[in-house]
Amino acid sequence: MEHIINQKIRLSNDLCEFIGAYIGDGSASKYNTKYGMRYHIQFSGHSKNDWGYYQNTIIPIAKKLFNIKPYVRTVGNSNILRVNFYSKQLMQLLNERFNMPIGKKSHTVTIPEEILNSNEEYILSTIRGIFDTDGCVFIDKRKIYLNPYPRITLQMVSKPLYFQLKEILERYFNLYARINEKRQNTYIEVYGFIQIDKWMKLIGFSNVRHLSKLSCLGGSGSRALLRE
């Protein structure tokens, strides 16, 4: 008998971060087996760079909120990490309450209206989950900069998600944002020491992969925050 997940569980920072991570790197599918219908929720990442994030953030959230443990594996000799949850009730929560698609979602996924209509803290927790999984921290070391110059970037193919994120993030940051019709993708960038400092205070990261890149800005990079 499958465990019970409270479909009316209250919004929280943990729940919103989990949903944000699902928006970034998650997928859902259901299929028939000889044992009946199987419900499969999967997160994908890099086996070395992202394992710490799933081990220390997403898996503990799943255990805490849903009392569910994942099946974790890597794909052959590749660096692809799969974090798998088999739960009809978790799929129902994501699909029926939060309108997360079953099957392909990359072009259509959005932040759920329930979260958009909640408080700022929950919205920003969701954005943290999206950027922790699908975002990138880039340190520009070209000689045109006095110090290594930080950028937080996100590329996506879902235009609805792009417009949501652009509208929200423009409340706090000066963005570089564009739609590339030729490549059929979109791009959002938060750039510069002052804005990255503000990002860390407002949103932050849970993924050590991103935090470790920003840590190299210590010393001269940190001082540059004061004089950008």
How does this structure look, described?
The chain has 228 residues and is α+β, with helices and mostly antiparallel strands. The chain has two domains: 13-106, Roll (Endonuclease I-creI); 132-224, Endonuclease I-creI, CATH 3.10.28. It contains nine helices and eight strands. The strands form two sheets. Strands 1-2-4-3 form a four-stranded antiparallel sheet. Strands 5-6-8-7 form a four-stranded antiparallel sheet. Strand 3 and strand 4 form a beta hairpin. Helix 1 crosses helix 2 and helix 1 runs parallel beside helix 5. The longest helix has 16 residues, at 51-66. It is globular, with a radius of gyration of 18 Å. The N and C termini lie far apart (59 Å). The model is unreliable at 219-228 (pLDDT under 50).
